[in-house]
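Next up, a chain.

===
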Amino acid sequence: MAISVDRVVLNPQYASNCFVVRSSPHADEAAVVDPGGDAPPLFAELDRLDARVAGILVTHADVDHVAGVAEVAAATGADTWAPAGEADDLRAGETRGGMQIRPHDPEHLVADGDTITVAGIEFEVVGIAGHSRDHVAFATEGSIFAGDLLFAGSVGRVDFPGGDWDTLLASIRRLNDRFGADAVVYPGHGEPTTLGRELATNPFLAELRAAP
């Protein structure tokens, strides 16, 4: 049976997606990806699904993707998996983008090539730098939780520290080479899409379409 994915927008200021991922529509454990704002809407969704948080997955440490990590972890006792190169941003607990980030020390650091199991789901960790210096995706069963790398009709910004345009394009190409056009991308903002759709129509990916 395919995984079950529910989306909650936790941060109205940034319209950031948080995903509740379960091994099936009836599973009572969930992996929560990128809780980026106040957690009550997430807890309400978990209550609706009758599911508990088995782990928190962080794709990158931008404020709109980690603002709720400490709150969710404290309320549920769930461990956090975060990119090794961005863990210090989680630990810092600073004010960014007008939001106060509560400090949180992730229990598990991940990097490209790792495999983790959370809520009974095996995730492959894929390094997708470009938007940030150590951004990762969590991939499972043809689904990719890709944070701010790629959106429906757009891509992540590269004008922040750690951003790089050529690296971002290479990361998108790498995902396509590894997972194929039918892979579903669950982005940090907006609606889900597929790698094939974006490679065919996304105006920001013309360079990839022109490449031999």
In short: The mean pLDDT is 94.
